[in-house]
């Protein structure tokens, strides 16, 4: 299918699809007319990418996890690479949450000092 059809079927812009391809997340081949052509499995791959992005993962991390993904949700085979990446992402998320809590406490302190 051409990129326009993939865009229509997934609801993802052609620009984003080209970006996913640049990042190594999607694979296309060039037809004789030099148009990008994607296989039927590209629809599932795009839906997997979108789900993993929604979980807060970067495209670099997604590139490592896609080989272990099945289904559109996706389901992840808990291979050592996936486990390590999820643990690393959770640790980074916990650090960001801690930083936000500290900042919130500082801002809230300004309000109570003013009262």
Automatic annotation (TrEMBL):
Keywords (A to Z) from UniProt: DNA-binding
Any GO MF annotation of the entry: DNA binding
SUPFAM superfamilies (alphabetical): Putative DNA-binding domain
Highest taxon of source: Bacteria
Keyword DNA-binding among UniProt keywords: yes
Residue ranges of every copy of the HTH merR-type domain listed in the record: 1-68
CDD domains: HTH_MerR-like_sg3
UniProt xrefs under Pfam families: MerR_1
Protein name per UniProt: DNA-binding transcriptional MerR regulator
Organism name: Amycolatopsis roodepoortensis
Organism taxonomic ancestry: Bacteria, Bacillati, Actinomycetota, Actinomycetes, Pseudonocardiales
């Amino acid at each position: 299918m051409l990129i326009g059809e993939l865009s229509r079927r997934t609801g993802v812009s052609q620009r984003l699809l080209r970006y996913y391809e640049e990042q190594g997340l999607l694979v296309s081949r060039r037809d004789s007319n030099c148009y990008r052509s994607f296989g039927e499995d590209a629809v599932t791959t795009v839906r997997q990418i979108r789900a993993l992005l929604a979980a807060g993962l970067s495209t670099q991390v997604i590139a490592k996890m896609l080989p272990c993904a099945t289904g559109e949700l996706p389901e992840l085979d808990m291979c050592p690479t996936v486990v390590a990446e999820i643990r690393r992402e959770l640790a980074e998320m916990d650090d960001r949450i801690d930083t936000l809590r500290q900042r919130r406490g500082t801002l809230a302190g300004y309000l109570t000092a003013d009262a």
